Amino acid sequence: MALTRQVVSTLNNDGTDVMGPNVLAFHYPDENLVSGSLLTVEANHFAVLKSRGAVLGVYDTGQYPIQTPDKPLLGSIVTGFFGGQSPWQYEVLYVNRAKLLVRNTGIGTSAEMAEMAYQVEYYVHVDSKDDALKLITHMPFAKHFIGTDEVASYAGPVVEQAINQVIQVTPMEKINEHIHEIVELVKEHLGSFLGVYGVTLNDAKVLILPKDERMRELISLRAFGLSGLDAVRYYVALKMAEKGLVSAPNAAVGEPFFIGGATMGTFPVTNALQPAGPGPATGK
Questions:
Q1: I need a labelling partner for 35 at 20 to 30 A (CA). Which of 3, 146, 164, 265 fits?
Q2: Range(s) of the domain holding residue 17
């Protein structure tokens, strides 16, 4: 099959760019490039030209003619020695230089061994042609793309280690007091790790919450200055109020509930936490 000159670009026929907000690098799928093909590099991309694993050049924004030795007059030699296929195969790899958002999530444990869910969001970009070369050298492609998901997978253990370094020795209620320390530690570890791949870390945000929803609500009540017992009482009262039980205020203050002068009970906290079922009259 005769090879023809072509325009190498990341743009689709409809004008959209395959290098979307989740794509860090793109391997151009056609390796049958010939001399004279035009390499187009958009304003927010780098391009790396390779042949048989060797890097021929790294390109900034612009259009560049590709000069390769696969001339048509070699046709008979190619047919005889290489089964009709050119011995020179070329690859174009595009690297996104725009800022991309990466997200890591996971589970850590506090000093009490309570499970804490964390979410780390950070922006990254590839700053220079040398960094683009580092990226395509050290990070393998998943088919034709390197996406932000792959970056998150590589960075996951580093993020987890940085977060656990603080929260594993910190009581659950005091973790947010150390959030600035955690953020700085994550940025330090993550920045050093990503730098090996030519990726620059711009900024990071860390959110840490108890994994159990009940614990989150109890800690929120403690934030109002309630004691541990009062927080549990108010939590139970809120759950009772959600079910329309008129005795919810009594549960909040730990007082008995009366119907027609008869005491219906004080609704101890330990019993109130049990699943709802047939119980005392609510006064309706």
A1: 146
A2: 7-96
Residue-wise pLDDT for 2-55, tens only, equals: 455 678 889 888 878 899 899 999 999 876 777 778 899 999 999 999 887 789
Strands 38-41 and 7-8: parallel
Sequence-separated contacts (24+) of 54-60 with Cβ below 8 Å: 55/133, 56/90, 58/129, 58/130, 58/132, 58/133, 59/129, 60/129
Q: SS3 letters for 41-64?
A: ECCCEEEEEEECCEEEEEECCEEE
**Same domain (yes/no): 207, 119:** yes
Q: Which two tokens stand for residue 147?
A: 């996406």
pLDDT in tens, 154-185: 999 999 999 999 999 999 888 989 999 999 99
Say if residue 193 is in the same domain as residue 241. Answer: no
Establish if 14 belongs to a structural domain. Answer: yes
Which residues make Cβ contacts (< 8 Å) with residue 185, sequence separation at least 6? 162, 163, 165, 166
Residues 170 and 199 in one domain: yes
Q: What percent of the chain has pLDDT over 90?
A: 45
How confident is the prediction for the chain on average, in pLDDT? 81
Domain membership flag for residue 280? no
Q: Tell me which H or E stretch contains 121.
A: strand 115-125
- Of 193, 211, 229, the last residue of a domain is 211
Same domain, 135 and 229: no
Residue with tokens 């109020």: 241
> Total structural domains in the chain?
3
What distances in angstroms separate CA 82 from CA 16, 68, 74, 79, 108, one per listed residue? 37, 17, 11, 6, 56
pLDDT of residue 3: 53
Q: Which of 43, 69, 96 is the last residue of a domain?
A: 96
